[in-house]
């Protein structure tokens, strides 16, 4: 058995240094309680600007919206930057594997990215969200197949699928084919239905599922942050719902709402193997004579210098 942890907490919007400080504190707390793997929510470093439209109604852009984007851009991080180096050092010192959502700055584009950090090797994966949802497409670029990263750990192969990417059946199939046994789902989806999605994926992939969602209130946003629409939960911007599910579909921890917390569970790596007796979505239950999936893992740059 191995202990895993899921951190349910809110980031410090637009302040990468403060968010890293908070992440390191939670990482150390989880490690002190025996966790070998710690999963943080989507956009934990850089923040999730809930409720803002960035002044981008159809056919228009506003000066205020561009100023909002400038602040958001300035609060993002690069994968090789000092903030991530601090996280990697903390993971090394605590001897834990880490999955954490960041807002990645690359050139003049932002990406919603899930980093995978090995305590000895540092950053070993950076999965960019393939399909930003709705208005997220205004502020985030699209990932490509070159970032469907996984990492080996003593708990098994770890992979990450971000928020509503989990509703993309072909992406899930690709991750199952990569042998994911600890399926991490950083998210900001705080609906009760999210637990059903995570349970389905655990059963479908015969994998442990660790979903980390932010909990953050309106009061923790800057005073001038525009909430362009009324929030469904009043003063709570994102209300959590983090959960840990076993390959059998058994919910091991959570879901928890309306508070910051760390969820823990002991997971049995052998549970995945036992679960494949009667179902393997990329093996004996896949019918490759009828269905075939091809995954393009080439990086797609807009400019190539030869």
UniProtKB/TrEMBL annotation:
It comes from the Bacteria. The lineage of its organism: Bacteria, Bacillati, Actinomycetota, Actinomycetes, Micrococcales. GO terms for molecular function: hydrolase activity. Belongs to the carbon-nitrogen hydrolase superfamily. Nitrilase family. Coiled coil: none annotated. PANTHER family: CN HYDROLASE DOMAIN-CONTAINING PROTEIN, NITRILASE. Keywords: Hydrolase. SUPFAM superfamilies: Carbon-nitrogen hydrolase. Pfam families: CN_hydrolase. Residues 2-269 form the CN hydrolase domain. This is Carbon-nitrogen hydrolase family protein. InterPro entries: C-N_Hydrolase (IPR003010), C-N_Hydrolase_sf (IPR036526), Nitrilase/CN_hydratase_CS (IPR000132), Nitrilases_CHs (IPR044149). The active site is at residue 42. CDD domains: nitrilases_CHs.
């Amino acid at each position: 058995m191995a202990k895993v942890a899921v951190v349910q907490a809110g980031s410090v919007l637009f302040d990468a240094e403060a968010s890293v400080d908070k992440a390191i504190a939670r990482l150390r707390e989880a490690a002190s309680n025996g966790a070998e793997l710690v999963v943080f929510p989507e956009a934990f470093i850089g923040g999730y600007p809930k409720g803002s439209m960035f002044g981008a109604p159809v056919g228009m852009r506003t000066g205020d919206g561009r100023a909002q984007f400038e602040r958001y851009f300035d609060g993002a991080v690069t994968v090789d930057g000092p903030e991530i180096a601090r996280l990697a050092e903390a993971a090394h010192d605590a001897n834990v594997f880490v999955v954490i959502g960041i807002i990645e700055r690359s050139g003049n584009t932002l990406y919603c990215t899930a980093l995978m950090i090995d305590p000895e090797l540092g950053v070993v994966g950076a999965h960019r969200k393939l399909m930003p949802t709705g208005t997220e497409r205004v502020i985030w670029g699209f990932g490509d197949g070159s970032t469907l990263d996984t990492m080996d750990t003593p708990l098994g192969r770890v992979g990450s699928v971000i928020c509503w990417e989990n509703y993309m059946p072909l992406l899930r199939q690709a991750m199952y084919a990569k042998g994911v046994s600890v399926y991490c789902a950083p998210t900001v989806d705080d609906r009760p239905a999210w637990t059903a999605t995570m349970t389905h994926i655990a059963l479908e992939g015969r994998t442990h599922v660790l979903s980390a969602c932010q909990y953050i209130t309106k009061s923790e946003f800057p005073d001038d942050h525009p909430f362009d629409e009324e929030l469904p939960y009043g003063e709570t911007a994102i209300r959590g719902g983090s959960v840990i599910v076993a390959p059998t579909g058994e919910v091991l921890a959570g879901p928890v709402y309306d508070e910051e917390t760390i969820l823990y569970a002991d997971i049995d790596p052998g549970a995945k193997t036992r679960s494949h007796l009667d179902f393997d979505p990329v093996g004996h239950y896949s019918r490759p004579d009828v269905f075939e999936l091809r995954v393009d893992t080439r990086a797609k740059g807009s400019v190539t210098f030869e």
